[in-house]
Design a protein that fits this description.
The protein is of the alpha/beta class. Helices cover 44% and strands 15% of the residues. It folds into three domains: 243 residues, 3-Layer(aba) Sandwich (Rossmann fold), CATH 3.40.50; 129 residues, no CATH class; 52 residues, no CATH class.
């Protein structure tokens, strides 16, 4: 078996993946902050790590623990609750539910553990106390900060030196900090905000602390792969490394840092703050989960990918074609192809699926099963052919009766020689997503 290679953001190189314990491979991916409906940029991250999880499961005989957290305490959630006049738990419950529905429609496997930040406050307080007692953190007026000067490797992941960081980054300015780059482990909450009693008064944890605590709890002080989008390298992942390595007196935290590139929209990063987002719910409704998944896998995970209707329409027609050779026969013989082992080269793998399709289309039954397995390996073909076709049908806005009535009118028009009216009817149906075909004196219809 050939080895899996991954681009490690720590070394900026493609490296052979060697797990600490092949009997229990460990993967942590930063999950959503549940304050607003997830968008297709978030879906890219979800799908990239879902494919990685699927590949690892095959390579290591399902001996993989995949942790993806839910951040349910955060300033953005507090803001959303004030803005929408809803209680915090109403927002976090509602968005978590939408997130789970989205994961299901994108056919993402459930992670092994999905810890919520608010269930780990005790451990977060313990880690904060421990960092203070070891001299890596200090308290000032109810705030606890991590002193970055105490960690000589700070900036190693993002490849920044402290001077770059001071000038380039958005850092929270505060007189309470010794160094402007120090980041918060614990901060005070006022009465109406969510808060927990602590040695430093009533307060709440900082975001970075959440992931250090939850990854250690479920994967240990050192684990294999930590993932997330590129935007998390700094400060989030840099700060996770600082907290965990200092507290545990270790040189390494995660051995491989894997980051997905941005999904852009008109070449700008898709993000809630820029307001250029398309929600997963909306995209899935318009195109289906499988089409969105295929589109998001159509470029290499390290590269940017631009979202546009053309991309989605192309993937839709690919899947429509592929479904001609769908079979639910399954020999469960999933093998990870060399192309996918090479840094999860999904565009290369999709090209290979096209080749398999072409071979299978010539009638080679063994290729047909291989083709189906290849699709299933990256999470496609989770709907039967009938479900896929029905889901397309349910998207059209007109009833079957209406279509048949229009076809009848068109036949009459043609019989009268009124071809322009017949053509109008065909165009009108086409605008509603219906194609009509005349064959051997019979007219049939199908969804575009
Ligand atoms: P958030 O809920 O904003 O913390 O994001 C959840 C995950 O989605 C993180 O791993 C982000 O890095 C990732 N993410 C957010 N926006 C994008 C984007 N436009 N393209 C790719 N990944 C993104
Ligand atoms: Zn995180």
């Amino acid at each position: 078996m050939n080895n899996l290679r991954l681009t490690n953001s720590l070394s900026k190189k493609k490296e052979i993946f060697k797990p600490i314990n092949p009997q229990n491979v460990s993967l942590y991916a930063c999950g959503p902050t549940v304050y607003d409906s997830p968008h297709v940029g978030n879906a890219r991250s979800l799908i990239v790590f879902d494919v990685l999880f699927r590949v690892l499961k095959i390579l290591y005989n399902s001996n993989v623990t995949y942790v993806r957290n839910i951040t349910d305490v955060d300033d953005k959630i507090i803001e959303a609750s004030k803005k929408n006049k809803k209680k915090i738990y109403e927002i976090t419950n509602e968005i978590t539910k939408i997130f789970h529905e989205n994961c299901e429609s994108l056919n993402c496997l459930k992670p092994s553990v999905e810890p919520k930040a608010t269930d780990h406050i005790k451990e977060m307080k313990e880690m904060t106390s421990s960092l203070i007692s070891k001299g890596f953190a200090y308290e000032n007026k109810g705030h606890v900060y991590f002193a970055i000067d105490k960690f000589k490797d700070y900036g190693k992941l993002s490849n920044k030196n402290l001077d770059d960081l001071k000038t380039g980054a958005r850092v929270e300015i505060s007189d309470l900090k010794k160094n402007p780059m120090d980041f918060v482990l614990w901060k005070p909450s006022n009465k109406e905000d969510p808060g927990w009693e602590s040695p430093w008064g009533r307060g709440r944890p900082g975001w970075h602390l959440e992931c250090s605590v939850m990854s250690e709890k479920y994967l240990g002080k050192r684990f294999d792969i930590h993932g997330g989008g590129l935007d998390l390298i700094f400060p989030h992942h840099e700060n996770e490394i600082a907290q965990s390595c200092c507290n545990n007196n270790t040189k390494n935290f995660a051995n491989y840092w894997v980051h997905n590139g941005f999904l852009t929209f008109n070449k700008e990063k898709m993000s809630k703050s820029l307001g250029n987002i398309i929600s997963i719910t909306k995209a899935v409704k318009k195109y289906s989960g499988q089409v969105v998944r295929l589109a998001l896998l159509s470029s290499h995970y390290t590269q940017p990918l631009d979202w546009n209707d053309q991309l989605l329409m192309n993937q839709e027609s690919v899947l429509k074609k592929w479904y001609n050779l769908y079979t639910n026969e399954n020999n469960n013989n999933y093998e990870v192809d060399e192309i996918l082992l090479d840094d999860l080269n999904t565009p290369g793998y999709i090209a290979k699926i096209h080749e398999l399709y072409n071979a299978a289309n010539k009638g080679d039954e063994s290729k047909r099963i291989k083709f189906n397995n290849a699709c299933k390996l990256i999470g496609l073909f989770n709907q039967s052919k009938k479900e896929w076709e029905d889901s397309k049908k349910s998207k059209i806005s007109v009833s079957e009766d209406y279509i048949l009535k229009k076809i009848e009118e068109r036949i009459k028009a043609k019989n009268k020689g009124d071809f322009s009216q017949a053509d109008e009817i065909r165009k009108e149906l086409s605008s509603k997503g219906i194609i009509i075909e005349d064959q051997k004196g019979k007219t049939t219809w199908k969804v575009k």
